[in-house]
Amino acid sequence: MEWTRETLKQLIEEKLNGSHFIVVSNREPFIHKKTLEGVKCMIPASGVTMALDPVLRASGGTWIAHGSGDADRQVVDEKNKVRVPPEDPKYSLRRIWLNKAEETGYYYGFSNETLWPLCHIVYNKPTFEEADWLHYKAVNEKFAKTIIDEVAGQKAFVFIQDYHLALLPKLLREANPEIKSALFWHIPWPNPEAFRINPWKEEILNGMLGADLLGFHIHYHTDNFLSTVDQTLEVRADRVSSSVVSGGRETLVRPFPISVDFDQIQKDASSPDIPEQIERIKKEYNLTAQFIGIGTDRIDYTKGILERFRAIDKFLEKYPEYLGKFTFLQAGVLSRIHIKKYKELNDEINAVVEQINWKYSSDSWQPIVMLRRHFSPKELIVLYRMADICVVSSLHDGMNLVAKEFVAATDPKKGMLILSRFTGSARELTDAVLINPYASDSFAEKIKTALEMPPEEKEKRNLKMKEMIAESNIYKWAGKIIQALLRLA
Ligand code: GDG
C-alpha cells in the first residue's frame, strides 16, 4: 500500500473508535515567540512534526510537550492548552512548564549529558549526576500527571517520543493500566557493554518496558535492546517474537525506520524558481567554484563535522587540481549551547575552518564556507539542488534524515551522497558512497570518487535510492507504528 498524509488520516478515522490519541514529546510542534510585530507562532523544522500532524488533525487529539517559547504562556487557556495549527485549528497542544532547575537537570543534564553520549558510541564520556537523575525522574512524573489528567479515564493511545521520556510508559501503566502506549527511541540503542555503566539502568529499562510497543530505527538497535534487557533484568526477552514479558505484560520491540516526506521534497525540488534561487545563494556567498559540497547538521559531536573537515583538508592536499574548483558549504544550527562540550565543539569547528581556509584560500576562493544564518526547509532544498556532493559523516546516528532529504531532492545525474556507515540510513541507502568517517585518508579518496562519478552511474544509484525513500516515507513510519499500537487494543 502507498502511504500518504491522506492514508494515514484515513487509518485514524476508521480505526480509532473514539479513543483519545495523545502524542508526547519534549519539543513542541508549535512555539509562540515574542517579536517586534507581536506574538508569532513558529513551526520548528522537524520530520516528526510533519508525520504526526496529520494523525493529530484526523484524531482531534492532544499533543503534550514542554512549552519553551517566550510567549507560550500568553496564548494558553486554564488547562495550558492552545488549539493548533493556528490557521486551521484541529487539535490541542497542551504545554508543560519547566523551571530553570528542571530544564537544566532533566534536559541539558540527564537527557543530553547522560543518555545522549551513553547511546551514541563516539568516545565522549557520559556524566552520571544524581541531581540530574532526580530532575529527570521528577519531570517524567510531571509529564505522567498531565497525561493522566488529559486522558480523564477515557480509552487512550499515547505515543511517546524519545529518550527524554524513558520513565513515562511505566508511570502511565501504574496510574492507568488501560492506557496503550508506544515509545519511539530516535537515537541508537548501544550494546549491553556500553549501557551497563549507567547506575540507573534497571529503572530506565523498567520504565521503558511499561510500554506496549517499543520502536527503534533498525534491527541492530532492537537486538541491542533485547540483549541489554537480558543481561540487566530478571525478565524474559524473546528473540523469536522480539518481545519482553515483564510484570505479566508483553512489550513488543520493533524496528520502524523513520523517513522524510518524499513527495513534498520532490515537489519543492522541481519548483521552477530553483535555478534563480541557486544564483541568489551563489551571489550571497560569492561562490565561484565549479563543484559544490554541502553539509547540514545540528552542531553536535556525534555528526562528525571535524572529521569531515579533516577529510576535505586531505583531499585538497592530495588533489591540488581541485584548488579553486571545489567549495564546501556547511550549514549548521547551534544546539544545546549551554553544555560545555557543545560550546567547545563550536569553537573548535571555527578554528579548524579558519586553519583550512588560511592554508588554501586565494583572493577569490575559499574551500569551506560556513553558512551562519537560518535556512528554511525550502532554502535547504535549494542548497541540496546546487550540491554535487552531500556529506553525512556521523560517528554514530540513529537514522539521519539529512541523507534521505538530500537523496529525495537531488538532480539524479548531478548529486551524490557520501554517507557514514555508522548511521541508520546507511542500512537502506546502500547505493550512496559509504565511508568510515574516522578513516580520513580513505574518506578523502571517497570525496574524489563521488565528485568524479559519471552522471549515468549517479543516476542509476540515485533512482534506486529515491525509489526506496518514496516507498518507505515518513507516513509509512507513523502509519506502521500506529497500526501496531491499534492492533494491541
Ligand atoms: C534525531 C536522531 C534521527 C539541520 N540543519 C538545518 C535544518 N536541519 C534539519 C535537517 C533534518 C533535521 O534538522 C536533522 O535531523 P537528523 O535526523 O539529521 O538529526 P537529529 O536532529 O540528531 O535527530 C537522528 C532523527 O532524530 C529522527 O528520528 O534521524 O538519528 O539523532 O530534517 O534538515 N533545518 C533547517 N535549517 C537548518 O539549518 N530548517
Could you explain the architecture of this structure?
This protein folds into 2 domains: 5-259 and 474-488, 3-Layer(aba) Sandwich (Rossmann fold), CATH 3.40.50; 263-469, Rossmann fold (3-Layer(aba) Sandwich), CATH 3.40.50. The chain has 17 helices and 18 strands. The chain has helices at 5-15, 47-59, 100-119, 130-151, 168-175, 192-195, 201-208, 219-232, 262-269, 274-284, 305-318, 340-360, 377-386, 401-409, 440-452, 455-471, 474-488; strands at residues 20-25, 31-35, 38-42, 62-66, 81-84, 91-96, 156-161, 180-184, 213-216, 236-238, 243-246, 249-255, 291-298, 326-333, 368-371, 389-392, 416-420, 433-435. It has a 10-stranded mixed sheet with strand order 5-6-4-1-7-8-9-12-11-10, sandwiched between helices. A 6-stranded parallel sheet has the order 15-14-13-16-17-18, sandwiched between helices. A two-stranded antiparallel sheet has the order 2-3. Helix 1 runs parallel beside helix 2 (47-59), helix 2 packs across helix 17 (474-488) and helix 4 crosses helix 5 (168-175). The model has no long low-confidence stretch (mean pLDDT 96). Bound molecules: GDP-alpha-D-glucose (GDG). GDP-alpha-D-glucose is lined by residues 45, 47, 186-187, 258, 296, 298, 331, 333, 375-377, 380, 397-402, 405.
